[in-house]
């Protein structure tokens, strides 16, 4: 509310000591009422629930927590990238196809540099270190380029990113099938799994989980402390207002999709490092799972508001549910049902937030 200025000069009044009202919420009140804290309570409740329901409390075992960290690391990474896009009012439904294509390119590069086909099939790799490093670079470059192409198509065609990335989902998957002939690339070096995919940092935390945490911290800093985050949320609030404020919207969109692509390429490399094979028929639900985690985590589905920390915590929920269902011997096909229900809950939560804030 803008106060009108009086046309009459104000009479001089004696100086009074400044008084401060207690309307500002305290630090603890801010933390305990935040979306991230609420989601953390849900995560703890789910862990305790499955711990009680699982046979002999297997769910609460150290080995299972390690599996949870590994299973949730990839979705946490995707959720961090998706937080920036959704906060900017954009969507990327093609990240699953990007993960598949990046993993295929990385696997092909590793096998090509690993020696002759006979040596590779026999597991006798030559120059393993060089092959793995080049495979990592290939995955990151492929993922980034895929994201840049998405952004360029949105900019040039002036079409909603939902439509563009929906089409690119088919394009990316098709290219992966063409490159592999519809057959997964396997026989990757076990050093990739031993030293990276299933390795533990200091014998405590899986390396992929450490990477997810580091990327999340960097993403939080970018969103909350840098102009990159301010410009991102400005786009999500109003494209026209962002343009009037001097933000190069098209360039920022390229940066955002490139960031999402870079993370997708990283996830693709982590995927093959864990399982030593590509999964060209998997990752179909990655985009929906990431979007659900982002929205549940406090990011508005319509842009303008984002929480990287909330997205990271919410990304653990699907891993807990799926892991708990598997331990309780519930069929794996229920995973799709769980993902769909989580997405519906996320949309409902976002709608309630919008209604409450308006």
Give structural notes:
The chain is mainly alpha-helical and 358 residues long. Helices cover 70% and strands 1% of the residues. The protein has a two-stranded antiparallel ribbon. A hairpin with a 3-residue loop joins strand 1 (200-201) and strand 2 (205-206). The radius of gyration is 23 Å and the shape is globular.
List the main descriptive attributes of the protein structure presented here:
16 helices; 358 residues; disordered N terminus; two-stranded antiparallel ribbon
> Could you give the order of the helices and strands?
HHHHHHHHEEHHHHHHHH
The averaged pLDDT comes out at 85
From the N-terminal CA to the C-terminal CA, the straight-line distance is 16 Å
Query: How much of the sequence is in beta strands?
Result: under 5%
Chart the SSEs and their pairings.
Layout: H1 27-32, H2 35-53, H3 62-87, H4 95-113, H5 117-121, H6 128-157, H7 161-180, H8 190-197, E1 200-201, E2 205-206, H9 207-225, H10 227-237, H11 239-244, H12 249-275, H13 286-296, H14 308-314, H15 316-327, H16 334-357
Antiparallel strand pairs: 1-2
Helix pairs in contact: 2-14, 2-15, 3-9, 3-10, 3-12, 3-13, 3-14, 3-15, 4-6, 4-7, 4-12, 6-7, 6-12, 8-12, 9-10, 13-14, 13-16, 15-16
